[in-house]
């Protein structure tokens, strides 16, 4: 009887262990990426991060909206996405928006040939009548489950302000504020200054000042801002640009980076930090301020008032190397030597 009981108990344990459900893998984060690629180079690194997250099934990139109104940015992003297997990703554009100047790396990367071969092969351009950025966001949100989408906003807030101020259309009977409230769970935005280290209005904020005011005053869902002081702490290593990407100068990311400024330079990772928080908030790479409201003043400076509101900003945790390692790992798709410890 004792032997039988032991056998029965062992069998029970075997069945119980095999009946336990497997631990479910978290669902990918649904992201709409609003970017001003063409102004600063960190946007390209941030987009590359999102591609790496997608490969790891941590992100589902729903679409990309462009807040820089230089038409060839469409060609650049389309070609860059095609290079990484995203030929059909929806694109939207801020017509009559800000920053129409070409700057350097977008035309240089599009026009460069190496050994008679171009670096990018876009098939979409301004001639293809892309939807307005805010209209594309409305379309994507209308199709998404409730409270499922993260908006990652790393340029002027033109498209997001137009979204919030939009009315009902063919995609949804909800106005912009109600649509965002129903479908968006977080806005992760690169914008503002939230410490005493710097005393100036942040660049993204002042490019479309009225749009910035609309975002922070009217957004009905939680907003987490990565201020200038955060990305300034983490400088992308020039040696990674030189060593970690196949093709060297024939790689569009490398060509864009070396064209943006004189090498070797280590650019701040402002936009990358907003992507990192949006996808990995549970890793606590940064501390968070108390909840409250961010206000954009008439001169473009940002102020924060604790209390009523669902807005916060990121706080540096004196963990420069672990965060930088993680950013490089995500941009390159390669493990770093010194693993972060969490």
TrEMBL record:
<dbReference type="InterPro" id="IPR001910">
    <property type="entry name" value="Inosine/uridine_hydrolase_dom"/>
</dbReference>
<dbReference type="InterPro" id="IPR036452">
    <property type="entry name" value="Ribo_hydro-like"/>
</dbReference>
<keyword id="KW-0378">Hydrolase</keyword>
<protein>
    <submittedName>
        <fullName>Inosine-uridine nucleoside N-ribohydrolase</fullName>
    </submittedName>
</protein>
<dbReference type="GO" id="GO:0016799">
    <property type="term" value="F:hydrolase activity, hydrolyzing N-glycosyl compounds"/>
</dbReference>
<dbReference type="Pfam" id="PF01156">
    <property type="entry name" value="IU_nuc_hydro"/>
</dbReference>
<feature type="domain" description="Inosine/uridine-preferring nucleoside hydrolase">
    <location>
        <begin position="31"/>
        <end position="282"/>
    </location>
</feature>
């Amino acid at each position: 009887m004792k032997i039988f009981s032991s056998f029965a108990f062992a069998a029970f344990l075997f069945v119980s262990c095999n009946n336990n459900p497997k631990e479910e893998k978290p669902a990918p984060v649904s992201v709409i990426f609003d970017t001003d690629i063409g102004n600063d180079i960190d946007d390209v690194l941030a987009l590359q991060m999102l591609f790496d997250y997608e490969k790891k099934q941590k992100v589902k990139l729903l679409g990309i909206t462009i807040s820089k109104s230089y038409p060839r940015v469409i060609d650049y992003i389309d070609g860059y996405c095609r290079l990484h297997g995203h030929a059909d990703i929806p694109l939207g554009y801020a017509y009559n928006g800000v920053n129409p100047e070409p700057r350097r790396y977008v035309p240089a990367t599009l026009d460069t040939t190496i050994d008679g071969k171009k670096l990018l092969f876009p098939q979409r351009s301004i001639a293809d009548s892309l939807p307005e950025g805010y209209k594309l966001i409305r379309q994507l949100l209308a199709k998404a489950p409730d409270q499922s989408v993260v908006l990652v906003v790393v340029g002027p807030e033109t498209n997001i302000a137009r979204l919030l101020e939009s009315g009902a259309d063919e995609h949804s009977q909800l106005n912009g504020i109600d649509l965002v409230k129903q479908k968006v769970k977080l806005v992760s935005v690169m914008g503002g200054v939230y410490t005493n280290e710097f005393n100036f209005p942040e660049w993204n904020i002042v490019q479309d000042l009225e749009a910035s005011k609309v975002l922070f005053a009217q957004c009905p869902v939680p907003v987490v801002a990565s201020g200038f002081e955060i990305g300034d702490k983490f400088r992308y290593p020039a040696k990674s640009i030189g060593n970690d990407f196949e093709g060297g100068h024939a790689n569009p990311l490398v060509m864009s980076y070396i064209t943006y400024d004189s090498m070797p330079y280590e650019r701040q990772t402002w936009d990358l930090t907003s992507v990192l928080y949006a996808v990995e908030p549970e890793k606590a790479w940064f501390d968070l301020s108390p909840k409250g409201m961010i206000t954009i003043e008439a001169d473009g400076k940002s102020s924060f008032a604790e209390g009523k509101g669902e807005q916060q900003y990121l706080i540096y945790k004196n963990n420069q190397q672990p965060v930088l390692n993680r950013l490089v790992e995500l941009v390159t798709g390669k493990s770093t030597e010194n693993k972060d410890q969490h």
